[in-house]
Amino acid sequence: MNTTDKLNQLAELNAQKDLLRLKKQELIDSVLTAEIKSQIAGIDAEFEPQLEAINSKDSELRKEIKSEILEHGETVKGAKFQAIWMKGRTKWNDAGLMNYLSVHPEIAYLRTTGKPSVSIRKVK
Asked: Which residues, listed in sequence order, are joined to residue 77 by a DSSP beta bridge?
């Protein structure tokens, strides 16, 4: 089996998971009466403002933490979370440097290439 076939098999497995989740939810919905569904909607409505307030506070706190970490330039570790400071990445114009290298081969030792990596993502 080639890699394309394996990627397609992975997509099929994900589709099967999604279908199972939908079937499970359909069965759950089929045993819930209109009264129970109404009660669940009421519970959701009761908790939604609290969740929105917590999400808003979470977002604001994350912004503050990031701002402080950027200002001080060092990682800070809490009991359950840590804010990791990372220095800015240096970028070079590889095409320009390769052109320079063709004229100045003595600098070839300065260039290294890292190992490749793989990330599996959904096709958009």
From this structure: 82
> 52-96 pLDDT, tens per residue?
999 999 999 999 999 999 999 999 999 999 999 999 988 889 999
Would the CA dihedral through 54, 60, 65, 66 be positive or negative? Answer: positive
- Does residue 25 surpass a pLDDT of 80? yes
Cβ proximity of 54 and 64 under 8 Å: no
Q: Is residue 107 a contact partner of residue 100, using CB atoms and an 8 Å limit?
A: yes
- pTM for the full predicted model: 0.61
Q: What is the number of other CB atoms lying within 10 angstroms of the CB of residue 91?
A: 6
Whole-number Å distance between alpha carbons of 120 and 6? 12
Query: Tokens at residue 25, please?
Result: 């939810």
Continuous segment of H or E residues that includes residue 21: helix 3-31
Write the CB contacts of 17 (distance below 8 Å, at least 6 apart in sequence). Answer: none
